[in-house]
């Protein structure tokens, strides 16, 4: 079912029971699988694939091509199609750029921005107003809470928790040393408290814990707890508090 006010390219492939709201635009080469809901004013750019049972809420943009700003030093290339897996919810006004892949059973909250070439695994949560820059890779079962900023090409593992208002940084010279990009690596199962800052080149070890408000400027070993500005070692995650595997359910 689709509204007569929507514009859908002739070669778009629509599955069964697809519902499309008012003033939706779906460009050429897109595939929309069964039981997808696309709400009012969404724009689906060319060569996008949307999996079964996914909901695209109002004013979402999927598959947007990146464009450089007048002072940008990052080389922009045209990206391929965007893939959104099955059973996802993409919140209102979210923008997902071209070349990004989102797995199954994910929740992307309102006003998130996910740049080109990102990869997000299954069962992930991307909070409200999260900014995820180009080329970021996220594993499965990872949660990033609202207003966090993930710098370009950051690697984030499985079962990671990143609290609200966390920032990651990749440019140690703060725009005075050319186009440098040395993003942090955040390993499996670690937890980062709200309002923390993870500085360039830092590796956050497996199942470690970063206290809220910390500024992390050097590597954190597996199972370590750090806190403060600058962050300092203050303990070890006890065995009874370490991550335990969970089933694939919300």
Polypeptide structure, described:
- 0% of the residues lie in helices and 30% in strands.
- By secondary structure, the chain is mainly beta.
- The chain folds into 2 domains: 1-65 and 80-117, Hexapeptide repeat proteins (UDP N-Acetylglucosamine Acyltransferase, domain 1, 3 Solenoid), CATH 2.160.10.10; 148-250, Hexapeptide repeat proteins (UDP N-Acetylglucosamine Acyltransferase, domain 1).
- A 12-stranded mixed beta sheet has the order 3-6-9-12-15-18-21-24-27-30-32-33, with no helix packed on it.
- The two termini are 29 Å apart.
- The model has no long low-confidence stretch (mean pLDDT 94).
How many structural domains can be distinguished in the coordinates? 2
Mean pLDDT: 94
Strand content: 25-35%
Strand order of the largest sheet: 3-6-9-12-15-18-21-24-27-30-32-33
Helix content: under 10%
